[in-house]
Amino acid sequence: MPHPLFILNGSNLNLLGRREPELYGTTTLAQIRSACESLATELGLACDFRQTNHEGVLVDWIQEAFEKDAAVIINPAGFSFGRVPVLDALKMIRRPVVEVHLTNIHRRPPPYTESLVSQAATGVICGLGPVGYLLAVRAVAEALKA
After folding, report:
1. What is the C-alpha to C-alpha distance for residues 15 and 30, in angstroms, rounded to an integer?
2. What's this model's pTM, rounded to 2 decimal places?
3. Catalytic residue chosen out of the listed positions 3, 24, 54, 112
4. Is position 24 annotated as part of the catalytic site?
5. Catalytic residue among 54, 101, 106, 112, which?
6. Active site includes 54?
């Protein structure tokens, strides 16, 4: 039976491909989803890919991942910076948690430089664009083998 993997996306990521393409590129979230689902299936993971603009919904989904003993890949977007409820929910996850950012948040101006969510992450991938999601899926698959 495939291990559950939640790929959770935060605010404004539904507009990828149209929102600040000079910063985030032209790849849409639907394209990222398709690539992630294909790779997850290939690697024996059951991928549940979601996006929300609402912090409480994101917290509910993280709690659902906890209940299902799922690994989590999260691009918290704007919820990265000072969002304690998201951090607290992620601390409950027993499987790998990989934080993904399309841009290199360490090269961005404040307030985009320090993710509070990173405190709960097993690992962080940032600055590699959409391929970061695929690297995260591979990292989760490897970690679950151990």
Report:
1. 10
2. 0.95
3. 24
4. yes
5. 101
6. no
